[in-house]
Design a protein that fits this description.
Layout (H helix, E strand, L loop, with lengths): L1 H11 L4 H6 L5 H4 L19 H9 L20 H9 L5 H11 L6 H13 L9 H16 L11 H5 L3 H4 L3 H4 L2 E2 L8 E2 L2 H18 L1
Antiparallel strand pairs: 1-2
């Protein structure tokens, strides 16, 4: 029974599963080990490996990384991304660190994309269907950042750079951009919203959205 279950699972898992399995070879505990370090041929995404990457991979465990500036205070991290970000600052290992970060950036599922779409659908509802792309993008980025850092808008503190960016050029669009086409309620041609009408509707939408952030 268990054998049949295992066979069915293997049939539904794509062959690319081996790629993600080999990502564990980029972990600092494995890369810096003298005994369990993987061979170059076992690393993921072989088509990305060049002779420079191969040479740097062979030398990476001969460096005392605890003496490097990136790891002097915190030590060598267990997280693969943090480790390779620190290695990226070493001029002799830029190729291997860039390769490793590229491999680690490979999405293992579409869950992240689905979360973004869910967030967009929660922000842009039928009553708020006049939201323009720039405003929608800004709100989604703000909410994503707050969720990622476990913060609330009430705890957010704006930096001096953020406040200085609040200029009329950044906050208000030009007259030509404000005149947008919207579907007319009659059978005639689409009508243009005036600048004052557009400002009013956008202010109403922005006020509603800020309450939800």
């Amino acid at each position: 029974m268990l054998v049949e279950v295992l066979n069915q699972v293997n049939k539904h898992i794509p062959p690319a599963k081996d790629v993600f399995k080999n990502l564990s070879y980029l972990n600092p505990a494995c890369v810096l080990s003298q005994t369990s370090k993987a061979n170059v041929v076992d690393l993921p995404f072989q088509h990305l490996i060049t002779s420079a990457i191969e040479e740097q991979y062979r030398k990476v465990n001969f460096v005392n990384w605890l003496e490097e500036k990136a790891f002097q205070k915190t030590g060598i991290p267990q997280d693969s991304e943090q480790f390779w970000f620190g290695v990226l600052g070493h001029p002799s290992f830029k190729d291997i660190s860039t390769y490793a970060l590229t491999c680690l950036a490979t999405p293992v599922s579409n869950a992240v994309v689905e979360r973004v779409f869910s967030l967009v659908n929660a922000v842009k509802t039928k009553p708020r269907n006049r939201l323009q792309t720039d405003l929608l993008d800004a709100i989604v980025r703000i909410r994503s950042n707050l969720i990622l850092n476990g913060k609330c808008c009430q705890d957010f503190s704006a930096s001096a750079a953020m406040i200085s960016a609040h200029t009329s050029e950044n906050l208000y669009m030009s007259q030509s951009q404000q005149n947008v086409l919207v579907p007319s309620t009659s059978a005639s041609e689409p009508e243009l919203l005036s600048s004052s009408q557009q400002d009013c509707t956008e202010d109403e939408d922005a006020a509603l959205l800020l309450l939800d952030i």
